[in-house]
Structure to design on (341 residues):
């Protein structure tokens, strides 16, 4: 048995479950139409769900993007202060955040693919449901129950097969968004506590060291300024004040 | 013959085209049995592309049951197995 035959069997089995047949085929028509509308609603919800998950990933990506820029700025600042060790730490962290970003991008692309598929599925099902509705009214108006039974056969199996197909597409999209949500949740947790906090906090260890360097630098500058103002002979250590004194005279 | 590509719509194929597609189907099945993921992926792509190339698409508002159904583009071997086992079909 080929793969095609096996898929045909499985989808036909799902299709026959998608719509239940009533005693009177004309009742079946109305009932199955209701079922079709329900499924259409479900696909539309599915599209919205996927879009929400995608949005969440985009927000996370934006946050991580900011981290990359910040770490890059820190690395430059550290290098300007001749602190290669600190610059290295910042760049290592930047690399780690970039890897996270890359995986988020891949997930986002996957969700986009699912969304596109569901949108197309919704369009196809929509067209079939509308065709079914038209056919149903014609059949109900023109035929007796016995005649309707044979007339609706093809329309019925055509639409229920589409329903089975769409049902499987929704299931797959649901599974994917579920997985994404779990991963997104894990990244949120990382952002909120522990591992990534050092990187994402307003004041991380690199910031503190750079700040120390900046404080040290400005204190030196201010000392220098005071010495210049006080003029020669005011320095306790001599060397610096003599120099500035010589310059002043 | 009408062939449905899951998630991608239905196509009408003449007998010669359907025979050609069935030959590719044998290779897809062989790759699945050999647990050959790459072979499965390439044979399935070939199969789906052949249905699209050799067939003419059924308009979305036509109501016809399909004679044969194939998984869509990008279905992995694992996904195919999962789909097939979801109804408890015994593989043969």
């Amino acid at each position: 048995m080929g793969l095609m035959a096996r898929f045909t069997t499985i989808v036909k089995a799902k299709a026959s479950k998608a719509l239940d047949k009533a005693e009177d085929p004309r009742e079946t028509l109305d009932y199955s139409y209701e079922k079709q509308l329900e499924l259409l609603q479900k696909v539309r919800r599915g599209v919205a769900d996927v879009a929400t998950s995608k949005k969440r990933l985009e927000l996370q990506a934006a946050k991580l993007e900011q981290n990359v820029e910040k770490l890059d700025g820190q690395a430059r600042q550290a290098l300007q202060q001749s602190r290669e060790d600190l610059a290295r730490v910042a760049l290592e962290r930047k690399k780690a955040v970039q890897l996270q970003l890359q995986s988020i991008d891949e997930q986002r692309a996957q969700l986009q693919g699912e969304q596109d598929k569901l949108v197309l599925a919704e369009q196809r099902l929509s067209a079939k449901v509308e065709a079914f509705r038209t056919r149903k009214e014609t059949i109900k108006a023109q035929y007796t129950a016995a005649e309707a039974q044979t007339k609706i056969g093809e329309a019925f199996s055509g639409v229920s097969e589409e329903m089975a197909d769409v049902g499987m597409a929704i299931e797959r999209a649901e599974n994917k968004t579920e997985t994404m949500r779990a991963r997104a949740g894990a990244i949120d947790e990382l952002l909120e506590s522990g591992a990534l906090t050092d990187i994402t906090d307003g004041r991380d260890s690199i910031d503190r060291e750079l700040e120390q360097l900046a404080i040290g630098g400005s204190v030196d500058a201010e000392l220098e300024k005071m010495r210049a103002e006080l003029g020669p002979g005011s320095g306790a250590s001599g060397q610096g004040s003599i120099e500035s004194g010589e310059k002043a005279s | 013959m009408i062939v449905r590509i899951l998630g991608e719509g239905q196509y009408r194929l003449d007998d010669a085209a359907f025979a050609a597609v069935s030959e590719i189907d044998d290779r897809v099945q062989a790759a699945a049995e050999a647990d050959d993921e790459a072979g499965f992926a390439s044979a399935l792509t070939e199969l789906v592309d052949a249905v699209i190339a050799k067939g003419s698409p059924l308009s979305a508002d036509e109501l016809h049951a399909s004679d044969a159904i194939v998984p869509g583009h990008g279905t992995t071997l694992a996904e195919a197995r999962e789909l097939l086992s979801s109804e408890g079909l015994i593989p043969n």
Observations:
- The mean pLDDT of chain B is 89.
